[in-house]
Amino acid sequence: MGHRSKELVHLGFIGAGNIGKVHMEAFQALQGVELTAVTDAIRPLAEASQKQFNILRVYDTAAELLKDSSMDAVVIGVPNHLHAPLAVAALEAGKNVLLEKPMALDAGEAKAIVRAERESGKRLMMGHQMRWSSPAMEVKRQVDAGSLGRIYTAKAGWIRRKGIPGWGTWFTRKGEAGGGPLIDIGVHMLDLALFLMGNPKPVSVVGVTYAEFGPDRKGIGSWGKPNWDGYFDVEDLATALIKMEDGSSLTLEVSWAVHAQTDSLPFVQLMGRDAGVSLRGEEGIFHAEMFGKSVDVPMFLAEPEGADRMRLSEHFLDCVREGREPVSSALSGLTNQLILDAIYESSKTGRQIELDWSL
Ligand SMILES: NC(=O)c1ccc[n+]([C@@H]2O[C@H](COP(=O)([O-])OP(=O)(O)OC[C@H]3O[C@@H](n4cnc5c(N)ncnc54)[C@H](O)[C@@H]3O)[C@@H](O)[C@H]2O)c1
User: Fold this and answer.
1) How far apart are the first and last CA of the chain?
2) Which of 1, 204, 264, 341 stands the most exposed, by the fewest C-beta atoms within 10 Å?
3) What integer pLDDT is reported at residue 22 of this predicted model?
């Protein structure tokens, strides 16, 4: 039998900012996909990326792009407050969607996306590339094989010492971003930890958030350009305890800015009855006990930068071609969003919050 080439996916891009271009670069390097169209609120950005990535057409607005019936799927990489309206519009227009994180501003919006996906019969995938790093994939294989035994607790986080992105831009404005580091980097760690734990069902959350640097214009990082005429009304540190239906638990700690010793790397630790694992940045170590002694087994899985994003992009294309549910599904996006909402609610009320799964 000859090798059948993969069915061509026609892909559009809504948003040609930082992450939009990262997606374009990844898809451009893959087979079986045509970069069909691009739009950005700032038209010159769309035109520049059309040139850079050989995209066929530029549209003035997302609404016009979504009317193009030659497209099967779109990548949405716009500020967070536009995720829900654009994802719902894309699904209603019959497009599959690769949506950047966080899913939406809040769980109400995330539920609207889940309903729209169900009604459309199309697929929506969340852009959580960390699930696709080699160490994360190796951990997932070991968890699925039962090597860790029952995972009863886990710890995940990302503690940046000086990393507030784009102070004063949409990144630090609650109405457009939905929140601070919890929404920006915490959602990646939450997503990864739940995935590696085997997707236990979260039921309740206690959390606290703080804003100790941002309001004083301290802790500024290098992602995005500050707008000193803007403002900061999100948190810059958050800590939370998430309890699952099966009795397991997860602690999450994130900061954009803090006075503390930190390597500023994202981390997940899984603690199982038979073995544990620590992921930190690109490195991973398995922990166990043998012959009465503690043993550590490092993972050596170095790979070129961006390999995780290539796998994510390939998986999205496969899901579009086969109508398959992506691993980072719409439901997993909603799960993360319910937890994020509950952390803010718990911080405001001082109470433990039970998650509301009703659609
Ligand atoms: N997965 C990751 O690691 C990762 C990394 C960075 C950002 N993100 C996410 O990607 C999203 C975008 O972040 P960014 O850093 O690229 O921001 P950005 O500000 O660089 O880019 C957003 C782009 O969207 C455009 N835009 C705004 N409204 C639009 C509209 N109605 N139609 C079309 N385009 C519109 C803007 O002009 C801008 O060019 C955010 O949700 C962010 O959380 C994810």
Assistant:
1) 47
2) 1
3) 97
Nearest CA to ligand 1 atom 28: 41
Q: Which amino acid appears at position 219 of this protein? A: G
The answer on 149 and 254 residing in a single domain is yes
What's the total number of domains in the chain? 2
What are the phi and psi torsion angles at 297 (to 5°)? Answer: -120, 105
Q: What is the pLDDT of residues 171-211, one digit of tens each?
A: 999 999 999 999 999 999 999 999 999 999 999 999 999 99
Is the CB of 266 inside a 6 Å radius of any atom of ligand 1? no
Q: In terms of residue numbers, what domain contains 58?
A: 9-122
Domain boundary among 76, 98, 122: 122
- Say yes or no: CB of residue 42 within 6 Å of ligand 1: yes
Please name the residue whose Cα sits nearest to atom 5 of ligand 1.
Answer: 19
Q: How far is the CA of 80 from the centre of ligand 1 (A)?
A: 8
Q: Is 296 helix (H, G, I), strand (E, B) or coil?
A: strand
* Same domain, yes or no: 221 and 343: yes
- Surface-to-core class of residue 62, CB atoms within 10 Å of its CB (0-12 exposed, 13-18 middle, 19+ buried): buried
- Domain match, 285 and 160 both: yes
Q: Assess whether 68 and 150 both reside in one domain.
A: no
Q: Is residue 86 part of a domain?
A: yes
Looking at the fold, whether 135 and 115 belong to one and the same domain comes out as: no
Close Cβ partners of 336 (under 8 Å, ≥ 6 residues apart): 101, 102, 103, 126, 187, 190, 191, 194
What is the model's pLDDT at position 282? Answer: 87
86-128 pLDDT per residue, tens: 999 999 999 999 999 999 999 999 999 999 999 999 999 999 9
- At 1, the pLDDT band (50, 70, 90 cuts) reads very low
pLDDT tens column, 125-137 = 999 999 999 999 9
